[in-house]
Specification:
By secondary structure, the chain is of the alpha+beta class. About 30% of the residues lie in helices and about 15% in strands. It has a three-stranded antiparallel sheet with strand order 1-2-3, with helices on one face. The mean pLDDT is about 75. Bound molecules: zinc ion.
Amino acid sequence: MTLMHLRLQHCVVKAPILGHRTQKYRPEWEQLPGFNHWLGPVKDNITKAYCCYCTREMVSEITIIKKHAASLVHSKNVKSITGKPITDIFKKVDDVNEVKKSIK
Ligand SMILES: [Zn+2]
């Protein structure tokens, strides 16, 4: 008589989330022509990007950001705000820079 060890196999296979993948904010997007001066990260949320001209958050995906850049609301805000120093608006980004370092 054979004693069989019925081992419970833990098949914890983490299935990759198919379809839409959440993108993380990339600081290099800020260097892209048309994105500089207004694009910034959102503190505590790397899946979001921030437009300091429109003071609104958006999903940090390049397609979404491009769409935002081309939107009428955004170009209006750029026109009305251009010339204003944006350093104050981006003050909160300082903390995020620390996070960026740790991600890299
Ligand atoms: Zn905008």
